[in-house]
Specification:
Pfam families: MbhD (PF13244), MbhE (PF20501), MnhB (PF04039), Proton_antipo_M (PF00361). With about 1000 residues, the chain is mainly α. Helix 16 (about 315-345) packs across helix 18, helix 27 runs antiparallel to helix 28 and helix 38 packs antiparallel against helix 39 (about 950-960).
Length: about 1000
């Protein structure tokens, strides 16, 4: 059984590679792979059909008792086969539906969803179930959002509803674990504690019910499903007919053993289900778009399934499962048939679709069979499942009247089902105008065959129903452990109330067909003035207005009020608490102060005063750098070489980046009146004194902690390394480091994302648009032709010393970086420090160029960041597979050296940090547009023009490679192919650290300028 999710995980990894070579034809090998995975799962399914429940379990988070546990039962088998077989058919359909191209996001997200769905239905751990539940939500969100701007708002609304369900399930998960004391799903469901705590049981039942209703689109959470029709038709056929909506149904079935006899569970599901069935049918008849009609019909059918699960009897569970199977077959096929009709007619509008009955007889036949099955016409599978639903609803808890009411409502919903099925067939194939030859479209045989497969497969099932007896038996045994009767399906049960109801539905349906012109016009008029998306938008706008009203307290752009509030509160806390607790604090440890501390304190105080009083931004940066360097000396005096080296390199890199950004800011700060500065000075003194008091009170008053002593004593033996700081970072607390590494990578990505949403004219406004010319120089410059003039106006002579320095220091720094990385496990060093040393080479190379050009290939920073994070994650997976715990290091001896996988983790740290620094230099260091010498601005006819890449262009190139100029898009649109620059032009934008011009001191020609 474990091979099933492993095989799908391998497909997740291989799909991007496959789409790179096969494009949209990737659907064929993926379909074959899905069928192969289904075959791989068959031995497990055979065990389940024999009455056994195979299990496997692997420790995941042992300290919390969380396992990667799988357990197969009848419920899991049914939903696994639905996900794999319908998924294979949809992939075949997609090979002709999708436009030519890679379509990587579609195939990859679909495979991720299948993996999440299969893991969801097979997992035997409550926490893993919740994780997989959320993964299905995320995958469906991205599959809808990938449709472009029309899909973005629907995707967000879908995420809103599924977020409610996820939050509800999260709370339920916490309560389940707290009450049962286990994360094992089977044990938690069968725990005897539920019978003894009815209040808690009711609470969890309601939470699980709400979570399931959000995913299965039950009222009032139903609007997301029709809204999600913005997604491509293959997405709708898979997610919204056979997969994601079935996740909600699965959750109800999975928890039925615990809650099937709880009144709150029965009332919630039966009431919501029947109401949804009626509303979905009514709204389906309101639609002109045949795809939205199918969406509302799905809502209606899911409502009937939900109501029957709420009944909770053996017959109800069997009927619900049978209709799940029937619905997955006919509805996935019908969604794909909508795509076929769209390709044939060029529209999905029922008022514009021509009469396709004669031009596409095969599609007409398939559509009739699919809609007949959904309408419950004998002898199709939908008829058998619909009669089973009617029988189950007659057993609704609450007395005989409850069963009759439920049956009556279900019959009414089924009449609506017949009506919208008739509207689909007649509107798409019979009632339209005669098609025009010149406007007729040719359909794809592959699409038609793929759409017909699930619909036609359900036809023979009606005559071999005994094949479904055993699978349904196992589902009932899993959902109702006390079940005693065996399931027996039959096409004919004799004359009974269910047959009478079916006959009544058909008679009314035929009458509707004959009077369809009036009936459909009535439903087109009988619409609400708003729909679900309008309701969500209204709620969103209300919340926005409420938030805007509350933001009056935090609205000012000036950060002063926020700082005053937070730091002032800290001061009040310190001033109030310190006198009370100071006498009870333990004494200070000995030898905390040294003479050098006094000197450093004085110097840091002077630097802080300069920082606070200077009006020059350059002076404040120098003062800030001085504070950092003095703090580094303080750390060195305390005997922490690792932290010292890290602090020193961080200070150096930070100051370089600040200086690059400084060119875009005014040279001086605003001058504020004394009436504003005096309160600020008082607040600063109070806050400083309070923090000093807290530091004195809360630090240096305890011995080394037990954890610290443990690291000192045990870390070298456990890790094989003498540098305890580094081994803590990459071994003992590697998960923390991975989180920080991810945040570091996301910071770089966030910089690119923000810059790529602002137009070039706002980031780097052209010099001619600046209302005032640049200020005159503070000192007079000698005339043109002199050395002083060239030093100010020409960049090339100024970078010669830096280029000579780079010639010597570049290789030394690179070698030092590798050495520091190599020795990090036993001596001061490691991946982070080594990456900062490597970044110094990048900084020198950037500063030593005469013109402002990006370092290296445009997309290199993002590749480095992604590779670094991926390497760290792969290291964790290696530990999970071979040591039983994520990020658990493996150790070995080879060639007289101690080797550990934590070095591979350190490689990830190195790459990510190097990528972030490269990104910072390339993006934040773009020259100011207003006559910055490094930017090579030129004055032509009284207008200053630039000959540099702007910030926006750099941000775009980080995503798409070399471009001919900045993009105007602000919503993530891709550049046109004509905007991309070829290889020769790309080479011009690269900066190299070698030059043939340094020897003679001549500036390079225009074509050679980047040789420097």
């Amino acid at each position: 059984m474990i091979l099933t999710p492993i095989a799908l995980a391998v497909l997740v990894v291989l799909t991007p590679v496959l789409t790179r070579f096969a494009g949209r034809e990737s659907g064929w090998p993926l379909a074959i792979a899905y069928l192969g995975v289904a075959a791989l799962f068959t031995p497990t399914a055979a065990e389940v059909m024999a009455g056994r429940n195979p299990e496997v379990s692997y420790p995941w988070i042992p300290s919390f008792g969380v396992d990667l546990a799988l357990r197969a039962d009848g419920i899991g088998v049914v939903f696994t086969y639905i996900a794999l077989i319908i998924g294979a058919v949809v992939f075949i359909y997609s090979t002709r539906y999708l436009s030519p191209g890679r379509n990587t996001s579609f195939y990859w997200l679909m495979v991720i969803f299948t993996f999440s769905m299969v893991a969801l239905v097979l997992t035997n751990d409550v926490l893993v179930l919740f994780v997989c539940w959320e993964l299905t939500s995320l995958a469906s969100f991205f599959l809808i959002a990938r449709s472009g701007p029309p899909g973005q708002a629907p995707a967000l609304r879908t995420m809103f509803f599924t977020f409610i369900g996820g939050l509800s399930l999260l709370v339920a998960t916490g309560v389940i674990i707290a009450v049962t004391g286990t994360t094992n799903l089977a044990e938690a469901i069968s725990s005897p504690v539920w019978a003894g705590q009815p209040e808690v049981t009711t609470l969890v039942a309601l939470l699980v019910g709400v979570a399931a209703m959000t995913k299965s689109a039950q009222f009032p959470f139903h609007p997301w499903l029709p809204d999600a029709m913005a997604a491509a038709t293959p997405v709708s056929a898979y997610l919204h007919a056979a997969a994601v909506v079935k996740a909600g149904i699965f959750l109800m079935l999975r928890f039925s053993p615990t809650f099937h006899a709880i009144p709150a569970w029965n009332i919630l599901l039966v009431t919501a289900g029947l109401l949804t069935a009626c509303l979905g049918g009514w709204f389906a008849l309101n639609q002109h778009d045949v795809k939205k009609l199918m969406a509302y019909s799905t809502v209606s059918q899911l409502g009937l399934i939900t109501a029957v699960i709420g009944v909770g009897t053996e017959a109800a569970i069997a009927a619900a499962t049978l209709h799940v199977i029937a619905h997955a077959l006919f509805k996935s096929g019908l969604f794909m048939m909508v795509g076929v009709v769209d390709h044939l007619a060029g529209t999905r509008d029922l008022a514009r679709i021509p009469k396709l009955m004669r031009t596409a007889p095969a599609a007409f036949t398939v559509m009739i069979i699919g809609c007949a099955s959904m309408a419950g016409i004998p002898p199709l599978l939908g008829f058998v499942s619909k009669e089973a639903l009617f029988t189950a609803l007659g057993e609704t808890p609450g007395g005989p009247w409850a069963g009759w009411v439920a049956l009556f409502v279900a019959v009414g919903a089924s009449v609506l089902t017949f009506a919208y099925c008739a509207k689909t067939v007649w509107g798409s194939f019979i009632d339209g105008r005669e098609p025009e030859e010149r406007r007729s479209h040719r359909g794809s045989p592959v699409m038609l065959i793929a759409a017909a497969l699930p619909i036609l497969a359900s036809v023979p099932l009606s005559f071999v129903l005994f094949l479904l007896d055993t699978p349904l038996d196992q589902v009932v045994r899993a959902a109702v452990p006390t079940a005693s009767e065996h399931v027996h399906l039959a096409l004919w049960h004799g004359f009974n109330i269910e047959l009478l109801a079916s006959g009544l539905i058909i008679v009314i349906g035929v009458f509707i067909i004959f009077r369809r012109s009036r009936v459909f016009v009535f439903f087109h008029r009988a619409t609400l003035p708003f729909d679900g998306s309008d309701a969500i938008d209204s709620l969103t706008n209300t919340l926005k207005r409420l938030g805007y009203g509350l933001s009056v307290f935090v609205r000012p752009m000036n950060s002063g009020p926020y700082l005053a509030l937070s730091l002032g509160g800290l001061s009040v806390l310190a001033i109030g608490a310190l006198p009370v607790v100071f006498a009870e604090l333990p004494p200070l440890q000995e030898h905390l102060s040294r003479p050098v501390d006094v000197i450093l304190l004085i110097l840091i105080t002077v630097a802080v005063l300069v920082l606070c009083t200077s009006h020059s931004r350059l002076t404040t940066v120098v003062a800030l750098s001085a504070i950092g360097i003095l703090a580094t000396v303080q750390i060195l005096a305390l005997g922490a070489p690792d932290v010292t080296l890290t602090q020193l390199l961080v200070e150096a890199m930070t100051i370089i980046v600040i200086m690059l950004v400084l060119q875009k800011l005014p040279r001086s700060f605003w001058k504020y009146p004394k009436r504003k500065q005096t309160p600020r000075l008082l607040l600063a003194i109070i806050v400083g004194a309070s923090v000093a008091g807290l530091t004195l009170a809360l630090n240096g008053r305890r011995e080394r902690s037990a954890l610290g002593l443990y690291y000192l004593d045990k870390a070298p033996d456990i890790s094989g390394g003498d540098n305890i700081v580094n081994t803590i970072l990459v071994e003992f607390r590697a998960l923390d480091t991975l989180g920080e590494l991810t945040v570091l990578g996301m910071a770089g990505i966030a910089i690119v994302a923000v810059m790529s949403t602002v137009k070039d004219k706002f980031i780097d406004p052209p010099a001619e648009n600046i209302p005032e010319p640049p200020r005159p120089p503070w000192v007079s410059i000698r005339p043109k032709g002199t050395t002083a003039y060239r030093a100010v106006h020409e960049a090339w002579p100024n970078v010669i010393p830096l280029q000579l320095t780079l010639k010597v220091l570049g290789p030394l720094l690179a070698l030092s970086s590798l050495l520091i990385f190599w020795r990090g496990h036993n001596s001061p060093g490691g991946g982070f420090i080594a990456a900062l040393v490597g970044s110094a080479v990048i900084g020198l190379a950037y500063l030593s160029t005469p013109k402002d050009r990006a370092l290296g290939p445009p997309r290199a920073p993002l590749y480095l960041i992604g590779s670094g994070v991926a390497t760290a994650v792969v290291t964790g997976i290696i530990g999970l597979l071979f040591a039983g715990s994520f990020l658990q290091p493996l150790h070995t001896e080879f060639a007289g050296q101690h080797w550990t996988t934590s070095m591979l983790f350190d490689v990830g740290v190195y790459l990510a940090v190097l990528g972030l620094m490269l990104l910072s230099f390339n993006l934040l260091g773009v020259s100011d547009s207003a006559a910055t010498p490094a930017g090579d601005d030129v004055l032509t006819n009284g207008i200053i023009r630039r000959d540099v890449e702007g910030t926006r262009e750099r941000a775009d190139e980080l995503l798409y490679g070399e471009l001919s100029g900045p993009m105007e898009a602000i919503r993530g649109e891709r550049p046109e192919r004509s905007r991309r620059r070829g290889g020769e032009e790309s080479e011009e934008a690269k900066v190299r650290a070698n030059s043939t011009h340094i020897l003679h001191g001549d500036p390079p020609a225009d074509g050679d300028e980047e040789e420097a």
